[in-house]
Amino acid sequence: MVSGSGICAKRVVVDARHHMLGRLASIVAKELLNGQRVVVVRCEEICMSGGLVRQKMKYMRFLRKRMNTKPSHGPIHFRAPAKIFWRTVRGMIPHKTKRGAGALARLKAYEGVPPPYDKTKRMVIPDALKVLRLQKGHKYCLLGRLSSEVGWNHYDTIRVSICCITSSCCFLER
C-alpha cells in the first residue's frame, strides 16, 4: 500500500479474492488510519477459517443478539459480504472518534467489481492470502456462501458477473 519511499497512491484497489477475513481487515484498518484511501472489491470471495456449518452457527448466535426494549436500536446485523467486511474493519478502528470516523469514511467495499474499478489495477496483500496463512487441509468457507446461507439474496447475481471480471483481466493484460 505504502511504498518504501513513503509515497502512497491516491487510491488503492484491493482484490479480496482468497484473502483471510481478519488478516485483510487488520491490514486495511491500519492503512486507513494512516490516511490511505482503500477500495476492496470481490468481498464475496473472502475466506474465513473454519467450516461453513461452524461459521453459520456462530453467525446465527450473533443474529439472536438484540436490544430488549427496542430491537431497532440494538446491534444491526448485516448480511451482505461487503457490509460484514466493513463491520469487521470498523471493529479495528476507533470509529467513535473524529480520526476513526475519517478513516472509516476512506473505506469502500463492494461485492464483485463495479464499473469504476474494473479497469484499474487490483492489488493483493500477501500477508493475508489463504494459501500462505491457512494450513493445508484446514477447513474454510467463503464469505459470500455464508452470507447467502444467513439471508443475503444476491449471491447468484454476483456469480453471473464473473464473465465481466474475466474480460477486465484481459484488458489489464494489454
TrEMBL record:
<dbReference type="InterPro" id="IPR023563">
    <property type="entry name" value="Ribosomal_uL13_CS"/>
</dbReference>
<comment type="similarity">
    <text>Belongs to the universal ribosomal protein uL13 family.</text>
</comment>
<keyword id="KW-0689">Ribosomal protein</keyword>
<dbReference type="InterPro" id="IPR005823">
    <property type="entry name" value="Ribosomal_uL13_bac-type"/>
</dbReference>
<dbReference type="GO" id="GO:0015934">
    <property type="term" value="C:large ribosomal subunit"/>
</dbReference>
<protein>
    <recommendedName>
        <fullName>Ribosomal protein L13a</fullName>
    </recommendedName>
</protein>
<dbReference type="InterPro" id="IPR036899">
    <property type="entry name" value="Ribosomal_uL13_sf"/>
</dbReference>
<dbReference type="GO" id="GO:0003735">
    <property type="term" value="F:structural constituent of ribosome"/>
</dbReference>
<dbReference type="InterPro" id="IPR005822">
    <property type="entry name" value="Ribosomal_uL13"/>
</dbReference>
<keyword id="KW-0687">Ribonucleoprotein</keyword>
<dbReference type="InterPro" id="IPR005755">
    <property type="entry name" value="Ribosomal_uL13_euk/arc"/>
</dbReference>
<dbReference type="Pfam" id="PF00572">
    <property type="entry name" value="Ribosomal_L13"/>
</dbReference>
<dbReference type="GO" id="GO:0006412">
    <property type="term" value="P:translation"/>
</dbReference>
